[in-house]
Amino acid sequence: MRSRDDVSETPRLNYEAWRDLLRSMSGRYYSEGIKPNAFCGWVRPVTVGGFKALDIGSNAHRVERTYRDVRLDGADHYFALFLASGELAMTHNDQAVRLAAGDVTLVDAARPVTYSSNNGNEPWNTVALCLPRQTLLSYLGFEPQGGVHRRDGTPAGRVLFNLIRNSYDEGSSPADSYMRLAVYDLVGALFAPSEQRSGSQYTDKLFTRIRAVIKNGFADPDFGPHEVAAEAGISLRYLQKLFTQRGSTCTEFIYLVRRHADHLLRHRELLGTNQPLSEIAYACGFRDYTHFARRFRQRFGYPPGVHMEKVAHLAVELVRTSPTESAPQAHDVCSSTALKDSSKHNVKPEVRS
């Protein structure tokens, strides 16, 4: 992130000052392998689209964060960590990687991590972008694993690093909300697991879970795509993407699940329960009968009051017969029921030829 001249002009901190400043901004870390009087380092905060980033440098041979540190901090975030200069070996989340300048790795602050340098007393420089865990998971739609790394030259990595490098502490901006989305997209491009990038096994399992969420919650009149995304733990944008890939939308899928009203209405007609259609509408997750009737007509081509094609036909026959003509008793019962329901809810029976 800095040239050698920049580093030389940066105020140097002794070990205690460096450790305390790093703890206040990032959590507990401890340095080993260099005498206190030979130690030098810096910690500089940077704001990137509303995110906090830290420009961190040191000549320490080893920096460690233990299970105890994690427990005391209660940290719940990730770091996208770029190595700006020097070389570091990192052990994290059962992964051991060697980082060169320009490489980027994902660090889970809720897991121990150790960094080691073999460059003598030459300083190394990292840039760590802090990413809130729950927000990141919700936006990406998957849980990234700490320890994943990408080598220098990755397009998304170059863009994100340049974004951080050219950022300054200028306070909040109206553009921050758009910048945050761009940052999340770049992080997703960098650290999505291979099955997520291929869109096969992972997305199939996730989509199965989403369908279960919809089937469990569709009866709530307020249930919609926002609620589905929240329950599934993914972003609304990613939810819409999953349905688009399958040639549908979440809203339409919810309506298709609600079509079990078809079965409720058949049951009502066959058993003669005379259950009010408004009750069926609400049981199917519709806020009111008018909305239910409109969607029902769009889906099946006729209103709920004349649900069964046979009933609709008999209703037409009843209308066409004169008062002196008598239709079979069963027809009269079914047709009068259909007409009564249609009249009650201001739905005009549709005449089907």
Verbal overview:
This protein has 3 domains: 4-192, Jelly Rolls (Sandwich); 197-248; 258-344, no CATH class. The protein is an alpha+beta fold and 353 residues long. The protein has helices at 4-9, 15-26, 67-73, 133-140, 155-165, 176-191, 194-198, 201-217, 225-232, 236-245, 250-257, 261-271, 277-283, 289-300, 309-320, 329-344, and strands spanning 30-32, 41-48, 51-58, 62-65, 77-85, 88-92, 95-99, 104-108, 113-116, 124-132, 149-150. The longest helix has 17 residues, at 201-217. It contains 16 helices and 11 strands. Strand 2 and strand 3 form a beta hairpin.
User: How many domains, as an integer?
Assistant: 3
pLDDT averaged residue by residue = 76
Helix-strand sequence: HHEEEEHEEEEEEHEHHHHHHHHHHHH
Q: Report Rg.
A: 31 Å
Uncertain stretches of 5 or more adjacent residues:
1-8, 308-353
The CATH architecture assignment of the largest domain turns out to be: Sandwich
Secondary-structure blueprint:
Elements: H1 4-9, H2 15-26, E1 30-32, E2 41-48, E3 51-58, E4 62-65, H3 67-73, E5 77-85, E6 88-92, E7 95-99, E8 104-108, E9 113-116, E10 124-132, H4 133-140, E11 149-150, H5 155-165, H6 176-191, H7 194-198, H8 201-217, H9 225-232, H10 236-245, H11 250-257, H12 261-271, H13 277-283, H14 289-300, H15 309-320, H16 329-344
Antiparallel strand pairs: 1-4, 2-3, 3-10, 4-9, 5-8, 5-10, 6-7, 6-9, 8-11
Helix pairs in contact: 5-6, 8-9, 9-10, 15-16
